[in-house]
Amino acid sequence: MTTAELYAEFAAREAHGISPTYERLARAVAGDTAIHELLAAVPEAKRQPNLLFGVVRLLGGPVDDPEAFHEFTVARWADIAPNLRSRATQTNEPGRCALLLPVLQRLPQPLALLEVGASAGLGLYPDRYAYRYGDRRIGAGDPVLECELTGIEPADRLPEVVWRAGLDLNPLRVTDSDDVAWLDALIWPEHEHRRARLKAAAAIAAADPPHLIRGDLVDDLPGLAAQAPAGATLVIFHTSVLYQVPDERRQAFEKLVGTLPGHRISVEAPGVVPFEDLPPAPDDTLHNVVALDGVPLAWARGHGQAMSWFAG
After folding, report:
1. What is the model's pTM?
2. Domain boundaries in the chain?
3. What architecture (CATH level 2) is domain 94-309?
4. Burial class (CB in 10 A: 0-12, 13-18, 19+), 226
5. Is 118:210 a contact under the CB 8 Å cutoff?
6. What DSSP letter does each residue of 125-168 carry, written as one string?
7. How many CB atoms within 10 Å of residue 274?
């Protein structure tokens, strides 16, 4: 896929209807050959819209005016390029826990959670957040994670979590202001509700920090999984992570994770974790597939805002 195609697809399938600012900006970048030439100097995986837009926002650049964005990006490329190379789209969206909850409640309790690609570990607290599925609310306090759920009844209880750990090549810390600033920069411009959600979730994690280790999803996963306490159901999960993993390592992970005890929940794009005979997605926007132990269960939007259950 060319850079122009990458940004055009992002505008049409990811930002459309969700972020007018990013939709407009991505369409402009799709036709901006000067920025294409700059991006050609960084690895292909580092050219993605979310990463470029997040870095520009982190450096104080404009994203609401495509012309101003172009001028800033060209003028500050010497600062932008190193950030693209060193950073990753570690969008740590607590809202994705609303996609996990219907699956977690079906598993034997209590649970030991291990997140692959954990970022700052905000996805490790599904038992500490509140949820609203339509007119049904589960849990108390903040943040309240709202999800449009179809195909099944909402969960009726929170999971019982007795252990939580995360694995990441570059784990972020909710107690580090620079790390939190990067998480904030990755939130799309209009999404003030997600900024409020990040703040509330970060406070929960800071009060009881998860066990996060710097490591590789193949080399270091078995050792971390072995630390899960006896008597708890181990759940290894990952959400919108594997698209950043090279094919060879992704295949090695797929082979490895099936040999480990417990269960696996994946929330990834269908081209990243492929399945046969999936029903049509609810619409043409980008959807992930929620699966348990390799069995697809539902379509889901990337930030956890909607879930369409199709499994029996």
Report:
1. 0.86
2. 3-86, 94-309
3. 3-Layer(aba) Sandwich (3.40)
4. exposed
5. yes
6. -TTTSEEEETTEEES-SSPEEE-EEESSPPPSS---EEEEEEEE
7. 11
For 230, the token pair is 């006896």
pLDDT, one tens digit per residue, over 89-136 is 888 899 999 999 999 999 999 999 999 999 999 999 999 999 999 999
Q: Give the 3-state secondary structure percentages of the chain, helix then strand then coil, rounded to 5.
A: 40, 20, 40
145's tokens: 């994670």
Q: Range with the lowest mean pLDDT among 123-132, 225-234, 268-277?
A: 268-277
Query: Counting beta carbons within 10 angstroms of the beta carbon of residue 177, is it exposed (0 to 12), middle (13 to 18) or buried (19 or more)?
Result: exposed
Q: What is the token pair recorded at 12?
A: 């049409």
Contact 7, 49 (CB under 8 A): yes
Cβ pair 269, 80 in contact under 8 A: no
Buried b / exposed e along 178-199 (16+ C-beta atoms within 10 A): ebbebbbbbbbeebeebeebbe
Quote the pLDDT of residue 263: 98
